[in-house]
Design goal:
The protein has 468 residues and is of the alpha/beta class. Strand 3 and strand 4 form a beta hairpin.
Length: 468
């Protein structure tokens, strides 16, 4: 799996691909734009009205003041809010248009699906165009559909969960997402079903000056288990595009959802990602967030521990190599007794890169016997780079055990001299130091993810390695 998945992360080598577009909705953001998207998708009335309410909220909300570089997201520069490639959704890879098929061949997705995945959905720009499920998923009764198709086939269940975990009232960019969402996947795992192999959704932005707003919902019914992989990539673009995706996880009693993201957008993508889960009694939600690419990334995988004895872990790796900003972290709300959480943040800053950890641990009144641990480790490779940590803790119960630990490391000239004197190049030495810095989280990950992240880190510092 490591070899195939690592192909999808080599964005530096992916050239823009020309493909035909069937529909492209452009213009200044307005009610008519939102209604046109809904009309094109042939949505039910409840979804059209939902979008319009979200748009009203977006227009009223101020821009988040806690993001000093939020001005970099200029919505007036986005030429297209919806792009539909001239390709129907298919379940057979060979039925895709040749130019689109070449994209996915270059990313290694067909081999990955054939060997390691129970299901695969791919999105190009604003639409899902390839969905495949193995017989195993069908026999288990798992629902895995493009979000638009799920709304048509299972309107009651989708309506029950859409916006339930991450509503449009949260902040301005959440409201923007709900008004313009397109693409994404809906997954429902029936009671007691444990899916033995991962499923994956892969999102690819193919055009510049474009917005992508996919919406993903994963629901684990009581006693179920599933691992979901989210992959993100884009070719080298001359001008920026904007990604404002959303993930909602709902883990019912005794279920387990593992959500793994490997984000390697090209350096012209501004990535604002909204991720949150709710865990009921005894449920477990695990987040793994590998943030490698993009120019600016803002994402905080969050969990509301709603049920007694529920647990969550969040592992976030952020690499800022060059003129890159990573504003990441995790937010955990302990809303029930005997809940536990663990946050591990690893950031690497190089060649002027900026990393920021922004986290929250909150223990509500009545949430007795809570345990929470946060570890933030930063590796700074030169004097031009920086790393900051902004933890917030709201503790409303005296018996809560909440701990936070933060450390910062720098590579020294002595370390580099020692390694280069033994035959390594400077870039190889830096790569090894970075891998040593993150190796303590590898035992917590499945082997294939460990191999994949190792390959990605080696690629990143092979291309832009070194100490300034």
């Amino acid at each position: 799996m490591a070899i195939e998945l690592s192909k999808s992360l080599e964005h530096h080598e992916i050239e823009p691909v020309e493909y035909r577009k069937e529909i492209e909705i452009k213009g200044r953001l307005s009610r008519s734009i939102v209604e046109e998207i809904s009309r094109v998708k042939k949505e039910p009335e409840w979804m059209r009205l939902y979008r319009l309410k979200a748009l009203e909220a977006f227009e009223k909300f101020p821009s988040p003041r806690w993001l000093p570089w939020i001005e970099s997201i200029d919505l007036d520069e986005i030429a297209s809010y919806y792009v539909k490639p001239a390709a129907s959704t298919v379940s057979n890879f060979d039925e895709l248009p040749s130019e689109i098929r070449r994209i996915y061949e270059r990313l290694g997705l067909p081999e990955t699906y054939a060997k390691y995945l129970a299901g695969l959905l791919t999105a190009l720009d604003s639409e899902n165009i390839y969905t495949a499920m193995k017989d195993l998923l069908k026999k288990l009764g798992v629902i895995m559909l493009p979000m638009e198709e799920a709304i048509q086939k299972y309107p009651d269940i989708v309506k029950k969960y859409f916006g339930r975990v991450f509503p449009y009232t949260d902040h301005k960019f959440a409201a923007l997402h709900h008004a313009l969402w397109s693409g994404g996947v809906f997954v429902y795992v029936p009671r007691g079903v444990k899916v033995p192999y991962p499923v994956e959704a892969f999102f690819f932005i193919g055009s510049e000056l474009e917005g992508q707003f996919e919406h993903t919902i994963v629901v684990g019914d009581e006693g179920s288990e599933i691992t979901f992989i989210e992959g993100c990539s884009a070719p080298r673009l001359k001008r920026h595009s904007f990604h404002d995706g959303m993930v909602e996880l709902y883990a019912h009693k005794g279920s387990r959802i593992n959500f793994v993201t490997v984000q390697n957008w090209s350096r012209n993508i501004v990535n604002f990602n909204n991720k949150r889960g709710i865990a009921e009694d005894g449920a477990i939600i695990e987040w793994v967030e590998g943030s490698i690419g993009s120019k600016i990334t803002v994402t905080y995988p969050s969990t509301i521990l709603k049920g007694r004895g529920s647990k969550t872990t969040s592992t976030v790796i952020g690499i800022s190599n060059g003129n890159v900003i990573k504003d990441t972290g995790s937010k955990i709300i302990h809303a029930a007794p005997y809940t536990s959480s663990r946050i591990i943040s690893k950031s690497i800053s190089s060649n002027g890169g900026i990393n920021i950890y922004r986290g929250l641990v909150q223990v509500n009144k009545g949430a007795l016997n809570v345990k929470s641990y946060t570890q933030c480790d930063s590796l700074i490779l030169d004097d031009k780079s920086s790393s900051s940590t902004y933890p917030i803790e709201h503790i409303m119960e005296k018996d809560a055990e909440v701990a936070h630990e933060a450390t910062t490391f720098r590579i020294t000239e002595d370390q580099l001299f020692y390694m280069t004197s033994r035959g390594l190049s400077e870039k190889e030495a830096v790569s090894l130091i970075v891998l040593g810095f993150v190796k303590d989280i590898f035992p917590k990950l499945p082997f294939e993810y460990t191999s994949m992240l190792t390959k990605v880190i080696q690629l990143e510092f092979k291309e832009i390695g070194g100490v300034g």
